[in-house]
Backbone:
């Protein structure tokens, strides 16, 4: 089916603001669950917080929340909230006092950490019975008439351009060392309803897309975008996009 799109060739030229515009939001129920597992509601610390997607959701549940990220640009783009203190710091050197954190989270970030160093810092800053949660969301799912084409693009076409750490996300962190007493958790997922430009805008946030462009593989990207546009229907048609959420969660 053809659409009114002039060409998908320009979808990958929208600029660096795409991350803030198109990254999907976590469900509020996830933050409520994490808070319910903490020994108290005094302090939550979100490490690798980016622009504060999970951090903001934790704020209603705790007396105070600290969001930490090594990127000053990400911190600068976090939405201000009187309940949250944002600081620029790496996961391996947390600028926190000993024994104060009730909950430590890392959402879609732990695959970049030096995990032994991070775990050492978590043990230092955590209070007795505190909870650590490493959260990730996996490969998105589309409706059946679109999903096979997307999965082939993700696996076979853009796949070689993902950094090695992406495999940890794809497996829901199942293969990483996690030396804590693990807790069960209910099923969570992220779901949005997006128009075609929003979906393609999300793809801009992928490091693999950036690396493919740097390798001169623009045609790979635009060919996929054109094919998906033809299958999508009207570009303003809203279609469901779903990501499964995985966690490694444990008590210290």
Residues:
């Amino acid at each position: 089916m053809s659409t009114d799109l002039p060409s998908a060739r320009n979808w990958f030229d929208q600029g660096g603001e795409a991350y803030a515009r198109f990254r999907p939001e976590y469900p509020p129920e996830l933050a409520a669950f994490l808070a319910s597992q903490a020994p108290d509601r005094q302090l939550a610390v979100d490490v690798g917080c980016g622009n504060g997607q999970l951090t903001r959701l934790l704020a209603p549940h705790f007396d105070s929340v600290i969001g930490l990220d090594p990127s000053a640009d990400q911190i600068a783009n976090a939405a201000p909230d009187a309940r949250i203190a944002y600081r620029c710091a790496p996961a391996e050197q947390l600028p926190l006092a000993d024994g104060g954190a009730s909950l430590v989270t890392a959402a879609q970030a732990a695959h970049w950490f030096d995990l032994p160093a991070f775990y050492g810092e978590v043990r230092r800053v955590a209070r007795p019975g505190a909870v650590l949660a490493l959260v990730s969301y996996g490969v998105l799912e589309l409706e059946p008439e679109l999903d096979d084409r997307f999965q082939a693009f993700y696996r076979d076409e853009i796949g070689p351009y993902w950094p090695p750490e992406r495999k940890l996300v794809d497996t829901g962190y199942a293969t990483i060392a996690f030396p804590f007493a693990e807790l069960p958790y209910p099923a969570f997922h992220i779901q949005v309803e997006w128009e075609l430009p929003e979906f393609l805008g999300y793809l801009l946030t992928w490091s693999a897309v950036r690396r493919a462009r740097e390798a001169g593989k623009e045609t790979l990207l635009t060919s996929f975008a054109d094919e998906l546009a033809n299958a999508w229907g009207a570009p303003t048609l809203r279609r469901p996009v779903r990501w499964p959420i995985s966690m490694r969660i444990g008590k210290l």
Notes: The CA atoms of residues 99 and 161 lie 41 Å apart. Residues 8-251 form a domain with the Rossmann fold fold (CATH 3.40.50.150). The chain has ten helices and eight strands.
